[in-house]
C-alpha cells in the first residue's frame, strides 16, 4: 500500500476561473431542470451528476499531483547494534539453542535477506557492544565473551557519534538485560527511532550463579581471611547446591553444601542472594588468587543432573592479599629505659611487628636535672660553653643510637625530617625525651 504525504496543484492560478465556471454551470443547471417537466428524483439526480462532473473537470484544470517523500538511496545511515555480552549464552527453558545462537543466525548475511534490502536505501553501520561500543565490518566477530552489557551507554554513545549526521534509525539486537541501567537517569540524549529486536523470551530460567564475593581480612596477617560468597539459584527449590574453594594452584581447599528450603518452607524472595562463608590463611605473601565454584551437588545414582541456563556464572576468581612486610614502629626515647626493654623483648617473637629504636646516648648528661654535680648549685647547662669545641659538640645535638634498623642508611641523620621518611613507619612512639 502506497502512502502519500500531500497533494500538490501545479496550476493554482486557475482556481478562480474554475470556481466561477463551476458556479455558473451549477446555476444554469438548476434553472434548466427547474423548468423541465420531469419527476423530482430525476431532476435531483441530473443536477447532482452535472455538479460532480463540473467539479471533477475544474479539479483536473488545477493539475493535481500526489507527492510521496522518499529518501535518496544511500543518503541516510542506519545503525545495527548487536549485544556481545556473556549473558547472551543463556538458554531459555525448553529451548535447544541459546540466545547467542539465535542472534548469530539473525545477523548472518544471506542473499536477499533484510540486510541486503536495507543496503539498497541506507548506508549500514554495524556495531557490537559489551563493556563499550565497537565498530565491526560484519558480525562474524561475535564471541559473546563481554563482561558487561552497556546497552544504555552504547546507545547514547552512538547518538553522539552521529550528531549532525542523517541517522535514520538504530536496530538493537539484544536480550535487553543491560548492566548500566543506573545511567538511564542521565538520559539518552537526542536519538533517532530505536527498533529493538529482543532475543529470548520471558520464562523461568533455572540457573545457579555467583552474584558477588566479598573478602574481609584482619589487621594481623596470622588471622584467617574470610571469603563471603553470595549465590542465587532460581528454579532449584528441591536441590542441594555445592560451593567449592580452590587455591591458586587449583587444589580443592574446602567444599560446602547449601541446602535449599524444602517444599513446605517459604523460598527466598526473588533476587535475594544466599550466603556461604569460607576462611583461608594464605601461605604466600602478596596477592593470591582463589577460585570459588558453585554447582549442583552430586545426585543419587541414576538421577540426572538438571540443565542450567548457563555455566558462565558458576566460577569467580577472588584476589586475597597478605602483607609482604611487617608493621614498623619507631620508638624514640631520651634514654634507655625499662619500658623499651620489656616492649622490645615482648615483640621479638612477633614477625608482624618490627620495633625500630632511636635512643639518645649521652654519657656526660644522660638526663637534665636542675641540681648540678657535687659542689654546684645549678645544672652545668645554665653556664653555657667555655669555647671548648669538643664540649660544645657534645651538647650541640643529641647523640642517638639506632636499634634494629633495616640498613645502614635508616635514621642515619636522626629523627625523620621528611614526610617520605615518616610514612615508612606505621606508628611512632615518643617516650620521655
TrEMBL record:
Database matches in InterPro entries: Class_I_gatase-like
Protein name in the entry: VWA domain-containing protein
Keyword set, alphabetical order: Membrane, Transmembrane, Transmembrane helix
TM helices/strands, residue ranges: 14-33
Native source species: marine metagenome
Keyword Protein biosynthesis attached: no
Source organism phylogeny: unclassified sequences, metagenomes, ecological metagenomes
Amino acid at each position: 500500500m502506497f502512502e502519500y504525504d500531500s497533494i500538490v496543484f501545479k496550476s493554482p492560478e486557475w482556481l478562480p476561473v474554475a470556481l466561477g465556471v463551476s458556479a455558473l454551470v451549477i446555476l444554469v443547471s438548476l434553472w434548466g431542470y427547474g423548468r423541465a417537466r420531469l419527476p423530482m428524483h430525476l431532476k435531483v439526480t441530473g443536477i447532482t451528476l452535472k455538479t460532480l462532473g463540473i467539479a471533477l473537470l475544474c479539479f483536473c484544470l488545477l493539475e493535481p499531483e500526489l507527492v510521496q517523500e522518499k529518501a535518496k538511496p544511500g543518503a541516510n545511515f542506519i545503525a545495527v547494534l548487536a549485544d556481545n555480552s556473556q549473558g547472551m549464552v543463556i538458554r531459555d527453558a525448553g529451548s535447544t539453542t541459546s540466545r547467542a545462537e539465535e542472534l548469530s543466525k539473525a545477523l548472518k548475511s544471506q542473499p536477499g535477506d533484510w540486510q541486503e534490502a536495507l543496503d539498497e536505501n541506507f548506508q549500514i553501520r554495524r556495531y557490537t557492544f559489551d563493556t563499550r561500543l565497537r565498530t565491526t565490518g560484519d558480525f562474524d566477530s561475535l564471541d559473546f565473551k563481554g563482561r558487561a552489557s552497556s546497552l544504555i551507554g552504547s546507545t547514547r554513545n552512538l547518538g553522539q557519534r552521529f550528531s549532525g549526521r542523517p541517522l535514520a534509525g538504530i536496530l538493537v539486537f539484544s536480550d535487553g538485560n543491560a548492566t548500566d541501567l543506573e545511567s538511564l537517569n542521565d538520559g539518552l540524549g537526542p536519538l533517532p527511532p530505536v527498533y529493538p529486536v529482543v532475543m529470548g523470551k520471558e520464562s523461568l530460567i533455572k540457573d545457579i550463579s555467583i552474584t558477588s564475593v566479598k573478602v574481609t581480612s584482619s589487621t594481623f596477617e596470622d588471622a584467617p581471611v574470610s571469603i563471603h560468597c553470595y549465590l542465587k539459584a532460581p528454579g532449584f527449590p528441591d536441590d542441594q547446591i555445592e560451593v567449592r574453594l580452590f587455591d591458586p594452584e587449583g587444589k580443592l581447599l574446602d567444599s560446602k553444601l547449601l541446602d535449599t528450603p524444602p517444599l513446605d518452607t517459604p523460598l527466598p524472595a526473588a533476587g535475594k542472594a544466599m550466603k556461604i562463608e569460607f576462611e583461608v590463611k594464605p601461605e604466600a605473601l602478596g596477592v593470591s588468587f582463589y577460585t570459588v565454584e558453585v554447582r549442583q551437588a552430586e545426585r543419587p545414582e541414576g538421577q540426572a543432573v538438571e540443565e542450567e541456563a548457563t555455566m558462565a556464572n558458576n566460577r569467580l576468581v577472588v584476589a586475597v592479599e597478605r602483607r609482604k612486610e611487617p608493621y614498623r614502629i619507631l620508638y624514640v626515647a631520651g634514654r634507655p629505659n625499662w619500658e623499651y626493654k620489656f616492649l622490645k623483648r615482648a615483640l621479638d617473637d612477633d614477625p608482624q611487628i618490627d620495633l625500630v629504636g632511636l635512643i639518645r646516648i649521652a654519657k656526660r648528661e644522660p638526663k637534665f636535672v636542675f641540681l648540678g654535680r657535687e659542689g654546684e648549685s645549678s645544672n652545668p647547662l645554665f653556664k653555657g660553653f667555655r669555647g671548648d669545641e669538643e664540649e660544645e659538640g657534645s651538647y650541640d645535638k643529641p647523640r642517638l643510637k639506632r636499634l634494629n634498623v633495616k640498613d645502614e642508611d635508616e635514621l642515619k641523620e636522626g629523627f625523620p625530617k621528611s614526610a617520605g621518611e615518616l610514612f615508612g613507619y606505621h606508628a611512632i612512639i615518643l617516650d620521655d625525651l
